[in-house]
Amino acid sequence: MHVFVSGGTGLIGSAVVAELLAGGHTVLALARSEASARAAEEAGAEPLRGGLTDLDTLRAGAARTDGVVHLAFGNDFSSDEALARCVAEESAAVAALGEQLVGSDRPLVVVSGTPALPGRLATEDDPPMTDGPVGGRGRTVLAALDLASRGVRSSAVRLPRTVHDQGDGGFAGMLTRFARGSGVSGYPGDGTQRWPAVHARDAAVLFRLALEQAPAGTSWHAVADEGDAVRDIAAVIGRRLGLPVESLPTESFGALGPVFAADQPASSARTRAGLGWTPTHPALLADLERLRP
Predict the structure, then answer these.
(1) What percentage of the chain reaches a pLDDT higher than 70?
(2) Which GO terms describe its cellular component (predicted)?
(3) Domains, in order of start, for the chain
(4) pLDDT at site 78
(5) Which of 105, 154, 197, 280 would give a disulfide with 162, using CB separation of 3.0 to 4.6 Å?
(6) Per the confidence metrics, is the pTM higher than 0.70?
């Protein structure tokens, strides 16, 4: 397939592009800057200049290709307003991509997140989160999955709280950056809340499998580690950086504080059985051992 990928040069996107190319696909990658365009070309993809708010460019990319993998997100977590703006921009982008594919039976794979269901493992059968700071992303995914009734082979790959590689990425990466900036490896609450995780290259394999195989209207979990206690994550970060490990008020972590504080383990049993997905790369705590002071 010739695949249009948004967000193809970030931690997850670069792994997805590499996986698609290794699997025999070709890639048209959305590139919002000259540097991103060069990175896409160096990876073996064709760049298409534009950003997530360039809806005509998104439609043109979808029109030129056999399927779409949507990964891009603004990632401005500096305030509630900034986060809401990112969510709104993504919603408009996914709607534009989906409308271009209506009636074509082409695949649209959208990125999502595993649900937070404190006290038990979230499964692929659980609905996405539609309230809270990032609830709008869940509503966007539901709208994309509803396109199955309009001739789009839409599916969602739900990513866990940490998608990592070489000790960086996701919520754990945010804790690391917070620790470097504050001098404390902090965590909210008592730290017993659990975060699921996956290596970026394992997640990339699942995006490829969903593109190739996923039935319309389905959701899949890219979960390798069902749930590491946040204080265990902070402990490794603190030890690797030579910093004290402490519980901090939830508000210390900004707009994402309530999400950081939630217990949110998740399972991928149905995904492994249904798509034959098997994670093979290092687990989160082992990968964090690669952090450099």
Answers:
(1) 99
(2) cytoplasm
(3) 2-161+198-225 (3.40.50.720), 163-196+227-265+282-288 (no CATH)
(4) 74
(5) 197
(6) yes
Instruction: Report the 10 Å Cβ neighbour count for 248.
Output: 18
Q: What is the pLDDT of residues 123-181, one digit of tens each?
A: 999 999 888 777 888 999 999 999 999 999 999 999 999 999 988 999 999 999 999 99
Amino acid at 138: G
